[in-house]
Specification:
Blueprint lengths: L2 H14 L11 H21 L1 H11 L4 H14 L4 H10 L9 H6 L1 H8 L4 H14 L2 H12 L10 H11 L10 H10 L4 H10 L11 H14 L3 H13 L4 H31 L4 H18 L4 H14 L4
Helix pairs in contact: 1-2, 1-11, 2-3, 3-4, 3-10, 4-5, 5-7, 7-8, 8-9, 8-12, 9-13, 10-11, 11-16, 13-14, 14-15, 15-16, 15-17, 16-17
Length: 323
């Protein structure tokens, strides 16, 4: 991995923590440790084998969509029942540029995801987007309506942090490194969010082709995203979409209040992560406690939505006296 890539990982970690720092002005101990992980992560993923390692290689292929799709297709072949890799592959194959990818053509992961995950709106949003890109408006509207009737909106993004953490922890030189879970959450969060992008393209008032005929479906989908999405960003996007379709000023006011509460929770989470990052520059006990709290968040993301995990992290940080 290049120095630029290692610095990018650190920058993501700090931005996600809400510190506002850059890689260049990060504390020296943290920067040195993350550089160590960045130096060896790609090599470790290449040598380790297995679905987790292939998932990491896909995350690292930021400038090569075909290589990313190929890595995730190989991961899915190894573990076809694993929703993280299937959903990631489906998202990687969603953009028009990926239609020429052999991995996407060979597996049609999007249809597989929709067939396996019946109550999840996310794959149906992508199917609606695929129909939109083909110019098939009836299919687009049908898939969008189907998406709007599902009970949740889940890209399984949180599960990626545990996969990255396992690859890092499998390297003896990184085992127990306090910075490791922070790098895991940062790298996992770099996965592009094609589902939210497509939901915005399909349902944002004023977007090309978005008219009153999709209003009922878009209102329902927006509410599902706001209440049952797996990430805070997707919930915020759902509230923004809902506001565009609001019937009156009173409804817009209620939605604005919801957005404010969600934004306040997100800021609390960023502040807690920033405080944990600062602890990485402290005593050995401080560093161990920071790792413990972030590693617990990584584990919880495998089964809980990001908003809930953040709330728990804030509460634990307060109890531990980190904030």
């Amino acid at each position: 991995m290049t120095l630029a890539c290692r610095r990018a990982i650190l920058a993501v970690a700090l931005v996600c923590a809400g510190s506002g720092s850059s890689a260049q002005d990060a504390p020296s101990r943290t920067a040195a440790s993350v550089d160590r992980v960045g130096e060896g992560l790609a090599a470790r993923a290449l040598s380790a084998g297995g679905a987790d390692a292939l998932y990491v290689l896909g995350l690292l292929a930021t400038m090569d969509p075909a290589a990313r799709a190929d890595a995730w297709a190989r991961a899915w072949t190894l573990e076809p029942q694993r929703m993280l890799v299937l959903a990631s592959l489906a998202e990687a194959c969603a953009p028009r540029a990926a239609f020429t990818s052999p991995a996407c053509a060979a597996h049609d992961p999007l249809s597989r995801w929709a067939a396996r995950d019946g109550e999840n709106a996310a794959p149906w949003v992508l199917l609606a987007g695929r129909a939109r890109q083909r110019g098939d408006l009836p299919a687009m509207r049908a898939n969008l309506a189907h998406a709007s009737e599902r009970s949740r909106f889940d890209g399984y993004r949180g599960r990626g942090a545990a996969a990255v953490a396992r690859v890092i922890d499998s390297a003896p030189e990184f085992a127990g490194l306090p910075e490791a879970p922070f790098v895991a959450t940062a790298l996992a969060s770099s996965r592009p969010d094609a589902v939210v992008d497509e939901a915005n393209a399909l349902c944002r008032v004023g977007a090309p082709g978005v008219g009153p005929e999709v209003a009922p479906a878009c209102r329902r989908l927006a509410r599902t995203m706001a209440e049952h999405a797996d990430t805070t960003a997707a919930r915020q996007a759902g509230l923004a979409l809902a506001s565009g379709w609001a019937a009156d000023a009173a409804e817009r006011g209620r939605l604005a209040a919801e957005r404010d509460r969600l934004s306040a929770s997100a800021l609390d989470c960023h502040a807690a992560k920033s405080a944990l990052l600062a602890k990485l520059e402290g005593t050995p006990a401080d560093r161990d406690r920071a790792r413990e709290l972030e590693a617990a968040a990584v584990a919880e993301l495998a089964t809980m939505d990001e908003t809930a995990v953040c709330s728990r992290l804030v509460a634990k940080s307060r109890v531990a006296g980190v904030r």
